[in-house]
Design brief:
Blueprint: E1 4-7, H1 14-22, H2 29-45, H3 47-57, E2 68-69, H4 71-80, H5 83-101, E3 108-111, E4 117-124, E5 127-131, H6 143-156, E6 160-165, H7 175-184, E7 188-191, H8 194-203, E8 213-215, H9 220-229, E9 234-235, E10 243-248, H10 254-265, E11 272-277, H11 280-295, H12 300-310, E12 311-315, H13 319-329, E13 333-337, H14 341-345, E14 353-356, H15 362-367, E15 393-400, H16 403-419, H17 423-430
Parallel strand pairs: 1-12, 5-6, 5-8, 6-7, 8-9, 10-11, 10-13, 11-12, 13-14
Antiparallel strand pairs: 2-7, 3-4, 4-15
Length: about 425
C-alpha cells in the first residue's frame, strides 16, 4: 500500500489530521545551534569562514578568491549549453516576466477637501540576494528557482541582484545556472551555498555586500539561517517541505492523479501528497496506479518514503466536504482534477496555487506558465502568498498638510496625544497654531 487510506466526514476529524501532518515540521535544535555558529563565524571572519565551510562540504580546494564568479564565465556557459535548452529557458522566463508585470503596484496620491495631500510611495529595495540550491552536487541545476526569484526582483526594479549557489566539487557552478543568469542579465554571482551563504548575504563580507531581501529555497540549514537573519533583512518566507492536495471527482484519470502525487513525493521524504475524492471507484483504482508508477521512478526511494509517511488517499461523502478539508489543509499546490473546476474555484479560500482541470498538472506552474512557484507551505497559505514583485518592494506613506489643516484639527490631535500621556506630541502640533 503506497499511502494511508482515510475517510473524512466532518470537521470533527480535522484535529487528528492536523496533528499527523504537523509532524512534517521536523524541528531540529541541533541544526539551529550549528547554524548560529555558522552565522557567528561569518560575522567574525567573513570570506575566510565562507571558504572554510565550502572546503568542508563542497570543494576541497576552495579559496576566498573563488567566491566571485566572473561575468565572463556566465557568458561562456550561455554559449556552451544546448541552444534548444536555452531557448526553452528564455521562453519560460518571458512567461514568468509577463505574469509578474501584472503585479506591479504604483505610487498614488489623493487630495482631501481640507487641503491634506496623502499618498504612498512604492519603491524597490536597493539590493536582493537570491539563493539557488545546487541540486545533487550541482548536477541537477534548479534553473526554475533562479527564474522564479530573479524575475520578480527585476520587475520590481531592484538595481542590484546577487546570486549565490553552492559550487560543485571543482569549485564551479553548473553551466545551466550560469547560462540562465547570463540570459537574465545577472552579473553578480557567487559560488557559495548553505547557511553560510545566507549569512554572507545578510551580514556582508569583503567580497559579498549585504543585501536587503533574501529569497530562494533551500534545505533545513538554509531555511534555519533565513529564519535567524529575518529582521536584519527581509526574507521571502519560511518554506517547509513540498506538498500537493488534489480534489478529484469521477472524471479524473487515476494514472494522471498518481503521476501528480508522485511529482511532489519525489522532492523529499517529508513531502506530502494527498488526494481527496468522493468517488469510491476512483479511490479503489488509485493505489494500484501509484504502486505501478512508483516502481519506475528514478527517485522511488524518496517518493516511497514520502507517500508512506505523509501521503493519503482520503474519501469524503461529497465534494463539499472535500472542499472544506482542502481549505483546512491550505496546501502549497491544490489541483482541481474535476470536470468543472470553475464551479469549485470560488469555494477555495486557502491555497498557494490552484491548478484548474485535468490538463493543468502542477509542473505547468512549477516551470513554465508564469505564476511563481515559491509558495507558502504547512498551512501558511491561510495568511501568506506566493513570492511576488511585492517581496522586493517597500511602501512609504506620504503626508502633506497645510497650516489650515493644523488649525482645523490641531486641538483634536493634541487631545489624542494627551490621552496617551505624550505631552510633547501635543505641543508639537500646538506650536503650529500659536499666533493664529
Amino acid at each position: 500500500m503506497p499511502c494511508r487510506r482515510l475517510h473524512y466526514t466532518s470537521a470533527d476529524q480535522w484535529k487528528e489530521l492536523k496533528t499527523w501532518l504537523a509532524g512534517r515540521q521536523n524541528p531540529d535544535a541541533v541544526v539551529e545551534d550549528r547554524v548560529r555558529a555558522m552565522l557567528a563565524a561569518v560575522a567574525e571572519r567573513g570570506d575566510d569562514a565562507l571558504a572554510e565551510y565550502t572546503r568542508a562540504f563542497d570543494c576541497a580546494e576552495f579559496t576566498p578568491a573563488m567566491l566571485a564568479v566572473p561575468p565572463q564565465a556566465a557568458a561562456e556557459a550561455a554559449e556552451a549549453v544546448d541552444p534548444a535548452d536555452l531557448a526553452i529557458i528564455a521562453e519560460a522566463a518571458e512567461n514568468i516576466r509577463t505574469f509578474h508585470q501584472g503585479q506591479v503596484q504604483r505610487s498614488w496620491w489623493t487630495t482631501g477637501p481640507d487641503g491634506a495631500v496623502l499618498g504612498q510611495l512604492v519603491r524597490p529595495v536597493d539590493r536582493a540576494g537570491l539563493y539557488v540550491p545546487g541540486g545533487r552536487g550541482g548536477e541537477t541545476p534548479l534553473i526554475s528557482s533562479l527564474l522564479m526569484n530573479a524575475i520578480p526582483a527585476q520587475v520590481a526594479g531592484v538595481a542590484e541582484i546577487a546570486l549565490v549557489s553552492p559550487p560543485r566539487r571543482d569549485g564551479t557552478l553548473n553551466p545551466y545556472i550560469l547560462a540562465a543568469a547570463h540570459l537574465l542579465g545577472i552579473r553578480e554571482i557567487y559560488a557559495v551555498g548553505s547557511a553560510w551563504a545566507v549569512a554572507a548575504l545578510a551580514l556582508g563580507t569583503a567580497t559579498i555586500p549585504a543585501v536587503d531581501v533574501i529569497a530562494g529555497p533551500g534545505n533545513i540549514y538554509v531555511t534555519t539561517a533565513k529564519r535567524l537573519v529575518s529582521g536584519q533583512v527581509a526574507i521571502d518566507m519560511i518554506a517547509g517541505p513540498s506538498e500537493i492536495c488534489i480534489l478529484a471527482d469521477s472524471s479524473a484519470d487515476p494514472a494522471w492523479l498518481a503521476a501528480d502525487m508522485l511529482s511532489q513525493a519525489e522532492h523529499d521524504p517529508l513531502a506530502s501528497a494527498v488526494c481527496i475524492t468522493p468517488d469510491a471507484a476512483l479511490a479503489e483504482k488509485l493505489p494500484a496506479a501509484l504502486a505501478e508508477q512508483l516502481e519506475r521512478l528514478p527517485r522511488n526511494d524518496i517518493a516511497r518514503a514520502a507517500l508512506a509517511d505523509w501521503g493519503a488517499l482520503i474519501t469524503v461523502p461529497d465534494m463539499a466536504a472535500g472542499v472544506d478539508l482542502a481549505n483546512r489543509l491550505a496546501p502549497e499546490h491544490l489541483e482541481l482534477a474535476v470536470a468543472d473546476p470553475w464551479a469549485l474555484v470560488g469555494s477555495i479560500r486557502h491555497a498557494g496555487a490552484i491548478f484548474m482541470g485535468h490538463a493543468t498538472p502542477e509542473p505547468v506552474g512549477d516551470y513554465f506558465a508564469g505564476p511563481n512557484h515559491v509558495l507558502p507551505t504547512m498551512g501558511t497559505a491561510r495568511f501568506s502568498s506566493a513570492l511576488s514583485v511585492e517581496t522586493f518592494t517597500k511602501k512609504s506613506s506620504c503626508i502633506a498638510t497645510p497650516r489650515s489643516y493644523v488649525r482645523e484639527h490641531g486641538a483634536k490631535i493634541a487631545r489624542l496625544a494627551r490621552l496617551e500621556g505624550l505631552e510633547a506630541h501635543a505641543r508639537s502640533v500646538e506650536a503650529r497654531t500659536k499666533g493664529d
